[in-house]
From TrEMBL:
Key words of the record: Transferase
Pfam family, one: Acetyltransf_1
Residues in N-acetyltransferase domain copies: 1-144
GO molecular function terms attached to this record: acyltransferase activity, transferring groups other than amino-acyl groups
InterPro entries per the UniProt record, alphabetical: Acyl_CoA_acyltransferase (IPR016181), GNAT_dom (IPR000182)
Family annotation (Gene3D superfamilies): 3.40.630.30
Naturally occurring in which organism (per UniProt): Pontibacter korlensis
This protein's name: GNAT family acetyltransferase
Length: 144
């Protein structure tokens, strides 16, 4: 089940992030995620199975007719099982209902950019050690 994020989900989401650190996130990104949850959530969703959060991801909107997919996190036990794909497609469909959005961006790393490429995003630029040492920026876009 995919549902909107509630502030009561915060601790469970932090644990989800920790389960993916250091494989997919640098330790110092936890503070950024906390700030995001506290101040920058616009549309954020969680995936639940039997009352347990196994994934999450958000959307942020910008005045230049763009949206950004943000903070995708999937429980390691559920990676490669279609959860991330379902959550991403849910958000792309959600964004498509907003007629003012023309382009969707995602800023990810070299570790998972192929996932977004398979979903139809194209690589726009890269920047070494952007997120933290060893975590490069891969900025990708999808034109709607």
């Amino acid at each position: 089940m995919i549902r909107p994020y509630s502030s009561q989900d915060k601790e469970e989401l932090l644990e989800l992030l920790r389960l993916n650190t250091p494989q997919y996130f640098a330790e110092e990104e936890e503070a950024d995620f906390i700030e995001y949850l506290n101040k920058h959530v616009e549309s954020y969703f969680v995936v639940e199975v039997e009352g347990k959060i196994i994934g999450s991801g958000g959307i942020n909107y910008f005045p230049d007719k763009t949206a950004r997919i943000s903070w995708d996190i999937i429980h390691p036990a559920y990676q490669g099982k279609g959860v991330g794909k379902e959550l991403l497609q849910y958000r792309v469909d959600y964004i498509r209902r907003n007629a003012s959005v023309e382009v969707i961006y995602v800023r990810t790393t070299q570790l998972v950019y192929k996932f977004y490429e398979k979903a139809g995003f194209t690589l726009e630029k890269t920047e070494k050690d952007f997120w933290a040492e060893g975590f490069d920026l891969y900025q990708m876009k999808m034109v709607l």
